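Regression report. Comparing outputs from two consecutive submissions.

Submission 1:
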Amino acid sequence: MSAPLLRVEGLKTWFDTPKGIVKSVDGVDLDVGRGEILGLVGESGSGKSVTGFSLIGLVDKPGRVVEGRIDFKGEDLRTASPARLRSLRGDRIAMIFQDPMMTLNPVLRIGTQMIETVQAHRKVSRAEARARSVEALGKVGIPHPAERIDAYPHEFSGGMRQRVAIAIALLHEPDLIIADEPTTALDVTIQSQILAQVQKLAAEMGLGLIWISHDLGVVAALAQRVAVMYAGRIVERGTIDEVLDAPQHPYTAGLIGSTPMANERGKPLRQIPGSAPPALGRPSGCPFRPRCARATEICQTEPPETLTGQHGWRCFHPLQTPTEVRA
């Protein structure tokens, strides 16, 4: 089996505040291969976005990556210089933000921004950079790209602006894209179109994609594997079918149970009791313990990972009987 494109081991990103240390990411392990889409899901505040920013060195102070290894194509990005990270960002690793206006400058034409992006990493003429930009816009479904490239961001709809942001991420045919909830603000029709386009591009270009979302429905339709995050930790991971059809962790089951089902029309949604722990007051042991009906005294200690094939979870009282335990 070939090595994954990206392997993250023991990643910890903490924020120093006047009231104490906020452990936004507290020991995350994940990996993604070429042509694979990995969904990273969880409630708001679970550490998903900070994980994405940590991978490419975009955590601002007072945040800092304090521990872990980020292995990208055999290179540990934790030890990379700021100049090396700048050369990788936008070239071999790209990021798509939730709000496309975090990518787009409202006072510059789309073409100007895309051409500058190309020339920042490649010594090519402006004409060649423009041609590459037009081609990228066409790949993501922008109609008449040779004309629309001269428009300003405000002349595009929200869905089209997000397509432009995706096109910019694809300009250098990166090896890895990190997408931070890029379709959350879009209506379901546009969302469906973009998801289909992303899936197609990942398969055609062989790029790895980490899709950060709180929407299990989107991840189920898009990804091959999923990692469920809670309070800064991965509590369950595996293939889409394994995790969504046979969840082991009570938190994963709670997320699935709170999702509207077509065959349960009119029934109230099931809620996870309580709320996520405060950033400065996370409990010892299993972070889900205060909200879990299955919790016992042993849950005050850190649960090891139980692993069956690709399916892994961290829980002393899973919904089914564990078969293999890895500390």
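Submission 2:
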Amino acid sequence: MEINKLHEKPPYGMIAILFIGAFVSILNETLLNVALPSIMEEFEVKATAVQWLSTGYMLINGILIPASAFFIQRFTNKSLFITAMTLFTIGTLTASLAPSFGVLLAARMIQASGSAVMMPLLMNVMLTAFPVEKRGAAMGTFGLVMIVAPAIGPTLSGWVIEHYSWRTLFDIVLPFAIFTLLYSIFKLKNITPQRNIKLDILSIILSSLGFGGLLYGFSTAGENGWNDPLVYGTIAIGAISVIGLIIRQLNMDDPMLEFRIFKYPMFALSSTISIVLAIAMFSGMILMPIYIQTIRGISPMDSGLLMLPGAILMGIMSPITGRLFDKYGARLLALIGLTITIATTYSFSRLSLDTSYGTIMLIYTVRMFGMSMVMMPIMTNGLNQLPMKDNPHGTAMNNTLQQVSGAIGSALLITVMNNRTETKATELSAAVDPNAVATTQAAAEVQADILNQSMLSGINFSFLVSTFIAILAFVLAFFIKRVHTPTTNPEQKEPEKETDGILTQPAVATES
């Protein structure tokens, strides 16, 4: 299918089914978090074991997403999507019927192997189907999947766990997965170009050790501490392997993951801002549940409902932001969105033990509104500068960096919170009057109060750190330049280039 015909009439029906597949796969990633205590009880496993249902899922994604650039170039989008959806459906069905924890863990790994390719594939199809000047609106709609699915996961799972078994979570996802698979078999068309490239086994090994090691090391650092040999050992192995991967890819004619795309300044800048912002964004995703449930004692269901308006607003804003991006570019949206994000993150650094439920909901909702104006416009602006042949590498790189930066952000913020909590607890304990803890009951009450106050201090300080991280993203946003197609900027028009049988024109960055 020729690209100019695609641009005249994008395949909306096909993109819709890809959206549903990506939505259920991302929803599934956060759906199980609230159910972990129930699974621990049923299978009689410890927290260190049950957390692998989440950590293992993330690791498989971290290993397979870098390889997605190869898969997207080597195989048709139809065969790739059907394979991914089949694996995801089999994993979902197996998880629903799992008789033991081992089977459930294996089912989650199978699910992850399918879902890992979904997001890069969907993004690549959209970059192929839409011209540069219309990608903002398209990628804004794509933000619905990327943002809303993980946001509604805890709310939905909280309600299900209160009324039904954890297996119902998989039963809800299964019909959507089966429908998407069947529809794709009969209706999906091939629109992405293929290249007859070979998979380099050493690149796969280095990628798996590199990104897998970094993800595991950083994701367990918050729980095990940085002094744990397993933490710094896996991070060191991961870092060395990633360096080896980069060197190998730069010396290959057909690399598995093209690192030369960072020579495009707007893509490099957008990746940097996305990494910084993802680290800051995780403050809300990690610290808020701790504050709401542990310190304030609010139920998981109510804590999920607290975050729901923000998710809904973010979903509403995504297509709107996309259209604004097409009209005004990324820089203006990013600066406005980051200003809101900085202000609301700073507000969260001033939480107290009696901050009202409504106030927390309002600040969180406004914060999500600000972030909705930043992530997709910046990412889209960076991808717009890449030649079409590098789109699979751009989408794979973005998704990989988000996974790794998310793990780094989690580890960083949890470490900051724990260190501050311990310091504050020591200060408060030293200031306690011995006469005030004369009885066992009084001592228990004082200890509980110290724990809450010190943990609150840790959370507030972590939000303050997140504020400064967001300020860094704000500063970087001033350097964003709008990427135009040569047809919309005739003075810089370049001759068409033929890549893999498809005529393309290089995008150029100009002042916004």
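Expected: both submissions complete independently.
Actual: both completed, but the second showed a warning that disappeared on reload.
Relevant detail on submission 2: Strands lie at 482-484, 497-499, 502-504, 508-510.
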